[in-house]
Automatic annotation (TrEMBL):
SUPFAM superfamilies: FAD/NAD(P)-binding domain (SSF51905). This is GMC-family oxidoreductase. Residues 399-516 form the Glucose-methanol-choline oxidoreductase C-terminal domain. Residues 83-299 form the Glucose-methanol-choline oxidoreductase N-terminal domain. The keyword Zinc-finger does not apply. InterPro entries: FAD-dep_OxRdtase_2_FAD-bd, FAD/NAD-bd_sf, GMC_OxRdtase_N, GMC_OxRtase_C. GO terms for molecular function: flavin adenine dinucleotide binding; oxidoreductase activity, acting on CH-OH group of donors. It comes from the Bacteria. Keywords: FAD, Flavoprotein, Oxidoreductase. Residues 35-69 form the FAD-dependent oxidoreductase 2 FAD-binding domain. Belongs to the GMC oxidoreductase family. The keyword Ribosomal protein does not apply.
């Protein structure tokens, strides 16, 4: 599929010299005005910009990352992670307790995610309503918005012929154990299973925000500017957003370029993600004490299985099978779910708990390795032990796996080990640092011992690709940072519209839920144009 014609209007560094001449910009500082500034271009910002521009708002959207066409997507992991991911793919917590993956490019994480398209179960949305006063958000109530998002993104069941060997381990092993493996929905049009989703789809099959909501916004008159990092939001009847130029890591910046932006608008929408969003608000001295607290990440851990036959986990759609049997432990609404991960050699090597000769010995069999992952709905104790803080000029992430969430992680790892063995694995590589070599599978192997493993930092390897919930929404400011309309408590016309708003662990991959809820919130805001923008 071709690149939308509208995307040629995205203001990239290559256009700066022209913009400077046309607007008589002096000292590299460009001053702009709009009805609304949207900060971030992912699942939240892209939808908000599209919806508000459609309603006649003058929208300016800024994105810290670069804009790439599919011809620029590179299968080299090092270059791709440096260009497409925040912190080159490794947002590491202060105590090195977790490493988090998050996109940083036009389209945000939708450009590099694995297409998994889910909406949370009823016991999750019920908790949001009962504990935090959310208006009804069950799948049934939200169906008009979810269906609209599905249609825009081409969401459909993964065809059976595209279920790869990596995912098939979950299906085969799960069925043998009497579990319920399910086909996942992916968001694409014309996927042929190249398996490069995490590095950017080179054929425009995956319907990322830069192929859907962003061109929708531009066609309705929105201005989209890449490579501009929001530094500060200044409150007042007329807000001011200050942003600074952020050059691409692998491309020389033009000699003549715009150094900074000063955008004035009565309305600001923060869609900078659950890591950078709280940091931006904190350094702007905006919001209450909930900003940055209760960060949720869906703590994730991996088991590699070695098979006699080739798996080639890097081929085919990354995620096509899910097992949710452990989703709701003892009726608590908390637990784990199992998916596959298409780790390429660099990331796979980083996740192996071995060094030296032992690591090389495992990597030598890379094509025969599968990777299953356990994802935990964090916050089983009532709140997650994680946060984001802007401190001494730097954004810092803190994370500790709670006892309750750790127990669910171990339950998930036990189930994943049993499934992988049932599918035929001959060796397992657990995420426990004490294990210095692969676990050799024996007949009638019993994995009850996994439940006794340590969950302490350094003993268990934990990662994440789903940061969310650090600017949570609730019906009162005693319980959250933003109201039910996603407006920041204490600050008129400053909104948060992205995955930061969830008051509990989401329990599913965030893209569809975020787009659906932001679509509803932005549509409501769009109807308030006169009262919001006329000062």
């Amino acid at each position: 599929m071709g690149i939308p014609q509208e995307n040629s209007q995205i203001i990239t560094p290559k256009k700066h010299e022209q913009i400077i001449k046309e607007n008589a910009i002096k000292d590299g500082k460009w001053k702009l005005q709009a009805d609304v500034v949207v900060i971030g271009s992912g699942a939240g910002g892209g939808v908000a910009a599209a919806e508000l521009s459609k309603a006649g708002w003058k929208v300016i959207l800024i994105e810290e990352g670069s804009y790439f066409t599919p011809a620029q997507f590179n299968s080299d992991e090092f270059i791709s992670q440096a260009r497409l991911y925040r912190d080159a793919g490794f947002i590491v917590s202060e105590d090195q307790t977790i490493s988090i993956l998050q996109g940083r490019t036009v389209g945000g994480s939708t450009t590099i995610n694995w297409q998994t398209s889910l909406y949370p179960p009823i016991y999750v949305t019920d908790e949001w309503e009962k504990r935090f006063g959310w208006k009804p958000v069950s799948r049934e109530v939200m169906d008009p918005f979810v269906s609209e998002v599905h249609e825009r993104l081409g969401v459909h069941d993964v065809p059976n012929e595209l279920v790869n060997a990596n995912n098939n381990v979950l299906r085969v092993g799960g069925k043998k154990l009497g579990l319920n493996p399910q086909i996942l929905k992916n968001n694409n049009r014309g996927c042929i299973g190249l398996g490069r989703c995490g590095l950017g789809c080179p054929i425009n099959a995956k319907q990322s925000a830069f192929l859907t909501w962003i061109p929708d916004a531009i066609s309705n008159g929105a201005t989209v500017i890449s490579n501009m990092k929001a530094i500060k939001i200044e409150d007042g009847s007329m807000k001011r957003v200050y942003a600074e130029f952020m050059p691409d890591a692998y491309e020389q910046a033009p000699q003549v370029h715009i150094e900074s932006l000063e955008i004035s608008a009565p309305v600001v929408i923060v869609s900078a993600g659950a890591i950078e969003g709280p940091a931006l608000l904190q350094r702007s001295s905006l919001g209450n004490d909930w900003v940055g607290k209760n960060l949720k990440v869906h703590p994730t851990s991996t088991i590699f299985g070695r098979f006699d036959q080739e798996i080639k986990m890097f081929q085919g759609p990354p995620q096509s099978i899910v097992i949710k049997d452990g989703h709701n432990q003892n009726g608590t609404g908390y637990g784990y779910w199992l998916e596959a991960a298409p780790y390429r050699p660099t990331l796979a090597s980083a996740l192996l708990p071995f060094v030296g000769k032992q690591q090389f010995g495992v990597v030598k069999n890379y094509k025969n390795l599968n990777a299953g992952i356990v994802l935990v709905r964090d916050g089983a104790a009532g709140q997650a032990d994680a946060s984001v803080k802007w401190s001494f000029g730097r954004r810092k992430v803190y994370f500790n796996l709670t006892k309750e969430d750790g127990q669910n992680m171990l339950r998930g790892l036990k189930a994943l080990a049993e499934i992988t063995v049932a599918a035929g694995a001959k060796e397992l590589i657990f995420p426990f640092s004490r294990m210095e070599k692969p676990y050799q599978v024996e007949k009638n192997a019993n994995f009850d011992w996994v439940l006794q493993e340590s969950i302490q930092s350094g003993d268990l390897s934990v990662g994440s690709a789903h940061p969310h919930g650090s600017i949570q929404s609730a019906s009162t400011e005693e319980m959250g940072a933003v109201g039910l309309n996603l407006e920041l408590y204490g600050h008129k016309n400053i909104f948060v519209m992205d995955a930061s708003i969830y008051p509990t662990g989401l329990s599913v991959n965030p893209q569809i839920t975020t787009m659906s809820l932001v679509l509803r919130a932005a549509r409501q805001l769009a109807q308030e144009k006169k009262q919001r923008t006329e000062l």
